[in-house]
Amino acid sequence: MNSITSSPGAGVISEWSMQKEQVIEKINALLIDEFEIEPEQIIPGENMLETLEIDSLDLVDIVVLIEKHFGFKVVTEEMSDINTLNDFYEYVYRKMAA
Amino acid sequence: MRQKRFGQPSIDMKRVVITGTGIYSCLGSSIEEVRDALYQGRSGIVMDPLRKKTGFRSGLTAKLERPDLKGSLHRRDRARLAEEGEYAYVATVEALKNARLDEDFLANHDVGILYGNDSSAKAVIESADLMREKQDTMLLGSGSIFRSMNSTVTMNLATIFKLKGISFTISGACASGSHAIGMAYLLIRSGLQDQIICGGAQEINAESMASFDGLSAFSVRESSPQEASRPFDIGRDGLVPSGGGATLILESLESAKKRGAGILGEVVGYGFSSNGDHISVPNVEGPAKALRLCLQDSGLKLEEIDYINAHATSTPVGDMKEAESIDQVFGDVKPYISSTKSMTGHECWMSGASEAVYSLIMLENSFVAPNINLETPGREAENLNITSRTVEKNLEVIVSNSFGFGGTNASLIIRKFRD
Hints:
Chain A is mainly alpha-helical. Helices cover 65% and strands 0% of the residues of chain A.
């Protein structure tokens, strides 16, 4: 992943990794609590629109959720590259790290 | 073969029956609870001090909690339902259950929905506030538009229950619920629909009632909230805003018999008119015309009417005009009269439907609910047989009146079903 190859040192890498873990945890918690997804639907490597049964209206609400809990506004064009939950975790993490 | 209406050629008109009812009101959240409250003459009115703090002239309102639908409805459906949609949903679930109309039936028949509603104020205000704060439409959420539209109730319920028949919202101010039932009756009678979910819904939040309060239309008898709504009483000083949801399942007699449904009553008359007069002050001629047309439509004689559920909202002028219109039409015939708004307050867009439900409860349980708080009738009501106490009586035929801003009037006649 780009963030690891560009990181300055081992201590900072683990700090960034932990932050990424926190981002993943937070996203999963939001999906379960606020989006009312069943925990077994969280399959990071699969197409998230299918596993989470998300439609176009849900994507609108995901934008709202991210702004509320992560403090940044999703750019719609950037979402088109996101297919799996892993892609989504990475996207949010990068935005947070920027 | 039914009688002619307004001189039109006779067509083979179907009989229209009611096979299920549901209610979510300040008197109770089920038909059984409401039946007990009506019989006991219990009031659902309370004082809300927060309204006074935020600039209301009257802090009186109905005691009504929003239902908790988590677990009953998917997140998406809940996000799209405004307050009044929640009430309508709960009432409709009860009505469908009572009518024994399940998912399977709805999937295989073209059941329609005609619901009365005339605002979704809070949803609109919340979106506007969020827009001012965020300055970005993409942060309003996907549910916003579906909560905000005038047809929010029917669009959501048609989606949730997967309905395939006619679907739209009827906005006729405080006659919305009655007109919804009336329109459903006409469609089923003409054979265009076999089953229609009809009703009325009303949000009760402060935002939706603010401009109404600004007309000084509400009672300020805040020291005794349960005595504030006093239709026909000489001491009445205004209405009390209220709300909730009420649903009736109307269907053709053939459809009801075919599936062995229980029948609660039959809709036999619908009359309507407009006053052609002041936007908020009623006259006598308009309501009297609606009442006459309703009677004509039913083919019934005045003497056959056992009870009139009056519109009477506890306003000084409105109650007087209705009393005069009833007196004009009925003359020496004196059916029992009461306004259940004495207990519920004015349920506005819901009231025509809820009062039809209350009337059906009385029909089924053989009692006339009291017009509570009637201590001294106003002069114009002295000639009428308005009861301030519960009367145990077998009822066969009832009339229900609803009138609204803009002078829109609706009268319905419901009778006990006789094969």
